[in-house]
Structure prediction request, 309 residues.
Amino acid sequence: MSASGGTRAIVAALGANLGIAVTKFVAWLLTGSSSMLAESIHSVADSGNQALLLLGGKRAQRKATPEHPFGYGRDRYIYAFIVAIVLFSVGGLFALYEAYHKISHPEPIDEWQWVPIVVLVVAIGLETFSFRTAIVESNHVRGTVSWVTFVRRAKAPELPVVLLEDAGALLGLIFALIGVSLTLVTGDGIWDGIGTAAIGVLLVSIAIILAIETKSLLLGEGANPEDVAKIEQAIVAGDGVERIIHMKTLYLGPDELLVAAKVGVPRSETAEQLATHINEAEARIRAAVPVARVIYIEPDIYQPAEAAP
Prediction:
């Protein structure tokens, strides 16, 4: 993923959410709508999440140290996981609590009735701009895969997080608009509570999806099948490597892939020839898959029993 593309999407979402949060809080203070309060907290949580993603990206740029010899690339995964927790607790659970309170004690919206409608329509416009930015930046790296596959397979967490947050924000605004509109039409505040509950369920669901996908990245994911095939072809493409005995890959961070391979070499190779051929294989791997930055190739004489990883 282009780091600049992810940053543009985060900054666009942060700017939109900060503006939306202020207007929503004003609308809640004027009307007492629980949907507006839930959406206000949602926007505050999203703003905090975008700040966390920017912080994670900054901290991930730190250079490797003796204590962390492979660097800090996984900081981006850690902060993305924190985002999922914030979205679940601050956004989703608060909305569900507020919905329970509103449904138990429904109240109509008697004053400033036009305010929440105007605010929600404006917020939908701003969120649409943010969502469009995330889509445009994602399309630069998504290729031909589906959106579901992109979210599940992306090694850089920022764009999937912003995409899901923006999609959830748009749907949440629509739920709030429906709940508030029905409350104004019927005079029954229970619709406001139902809209708030829908927002809570939506946010909890998105948070769970984000947590599952980010947990997988934290545990350590290997290269996708296409890149594995490219690496294997690169290893055996030159002289001096007869076969791959076994190979493992691991993402140390979104932009850094570790490749460890045990390869079979001819018995007649001299040490100098062996070193030259391994260096050439490493260069071919980096040319085929540029994110493969940490490469360890172990030469060996192939024995059939060693083929199993």
Q: What stands out?
A: The chain is about 70% helix and 10% strand. The chain has two domains: 3-219, 225-307. The chain has a mean pLDDT of 85.
